[in-house]
Design goal:
Helix content is 47%, strand content 12%. It contains 12 helices and 10 strands. It has helices at 34-42, 62-68, 82-96, 117-124, 159-178, 195-206, 224-234, 255-276, 283-311, 319-335, 341-349, 351-372; strands at 21-27, 50-55, 72-75, 103-107, 111-113, 145-149, 151-154, 190-194, 238-240, 246-249.
């Protein structure tokens, strides 16, 4: 495979308010959730013209529940490539009936969209609206927009672990806003693609410009959403997550499930970067991974130093370091504000979030080790 290179594109406006939208929902044993996902699509301010559910190797009543909710159902055939394989099977016949400017929404079955999601995403596609329908996006326009991703928030429940995930997701949404709504990952929870962009991704794979097989989604990646983001951006397109594009998704309710989910996310991200190598597109991602490594090191040193001080007896407290610690707690509390006051109280304890950070650092180290030694990839449904 030739090393992928970013393809510069002319500055242009490519939006089409009259474009058709087809919603595509890959689902594996989601009989208890699929109806809610379809209902949220039908309740959109700008509903899709068609809703298609891809029932992939289901052993429950997913297909029947989807049909009862009014969706078209396609059942995958001999698919051994999980979500990416199911999507590739569905996209071929789907795209054959769409124009270049038509749009495809790919959405998880365990996710419900905010009512204004599609209206905001369609408006943002031409690069002129900020997703709230009130004005233009700020910042330089460095190419056409190929895809618009959602901003995910955690559903209620899940106890303490669910609360920690909701805080994390709110902070991520805040980070997206601070980056002028640039989407660094076109989340699998919900992303709107231009049909022409998906066709171009497939052609680039066929031409050997990017890897991952010969279809739309990579069959070689544990995290197909992260990989297709890099593919779309390598081809010179912009990716956005406007503020109106919120989605509510499932949270993991126990540590083993969270561990497997995050290990898949982290290892997939590392392996995608290894496959793409250093390019102008991947450079920010590689730097972010390096900073993650430093944060792992610094937290470990802090915990070791604290333990050593406690083992020596009563520790001495410096006013300077107490002030630094208070600022750290204040930052945690302020960034959890949109998650609600209960989340702010949880953030103020600091210790619980430090334990959660340590858990994620353990995930990072395991993923890094598995990637370096090229251990066998394992995928588990979460």
């Amino acid at each position: 495979m030739r090393r992928p290179r970013a393809v510069p594109r002319p500055r242009q406006r490519t939006g089409n308010p009259a474009a058709r939208v087809v919603a595509l929902i890959p689902a594996h044993d989601e009989a208890d959730r699929i109806a809610a996902a379809i209902a949220a699509l039908r309740g959109q301010l700008r509903p899709p013209e068609r809703i298609v559910v891809v029932a992939d190797n289901c052993t429950d009543g997913t297909a029947e529940a989807a049909r009862a909710a009014g969706a078209t159902v396609l059942e995958s055939r001999d698919n051994r490539h999980r979500k990416a394989g199911a999507l590739n099977q569905a996209l071929d016949p789907l795209l054959a009936g769409l124009d270049a400017e038509d749009l495809v929404l790919v959405q998880d079955a365990d996710t419900t969209l905010w009512p204004g999601f599609l209206a905001s995403a369609v408006a943002a596609m031409d690069g002129t609206m900020d997703g709230t329908m009130d004005g233009p996006l700020e910042g330089p326009v460095d190419g056409p927009i190929g895809a618009v991703g959602g901003i995910f928030y955690g559903e209620p429940g899940g106890g303490l672990l669910g609360a920690l995930q909701r805080i994390e997701f709110h902070r991520y949404a805040r980070e997206i806003a601070r980056r002028n709504h640039r989407a660094d990952v076109l989340t699998g929870t919900a992303t709107l693609f231009r049909a022409a962009t998906l066709r171009e991704v497939r052609q680039a794979r066929l031409d050997g410009l990017i890897g991952g097989g010969s279809s739309y989604y990579s069959l070689a990646s544990l995290t197909e959403d992260d990989e297709i983001t890099k593919a779309v951006r390598t081809l010179g397109y912009r990716t956005l997550s406007p503020p109106g594009c919120g989605v509510v998704t499932e949270v993991m309710t126990d540590l083993p499930a969270l561990w497997h989910q995050r290990l898949r996310w982290q290892r997939g991200a590392l392996e995608n970067l290894r496959d793409y190598g250093w390019t102008p597109v991947t450079a920010p991602y590689l730097r972010r991974q390096a900073f993650m490594g430093l944060s792992v090191l610094f937290l470990a040193l802090y915990l070791v130093f604290t333990g050593w001080m406690l083992a020596r007896g009563r520790p001495r407290f410096s006013r300077f370091w107490l002030a630094v610690g208070l600022l750290f707690v204040l930052e945690k509390v302020v960034t959890a504000r949109r998650a609600g006051w209960r989340s702010q109280l949880l953030a103020a304890t600091l210790g619980i979030e430090l334990a959660y950070d340590a858990f994620q650092h353990a995930v990072y180290l395991r993923a890094l080790w598995d990637t370096l030694r090229r251990g066998e990839q394992q995928w588990r449904a979460t």
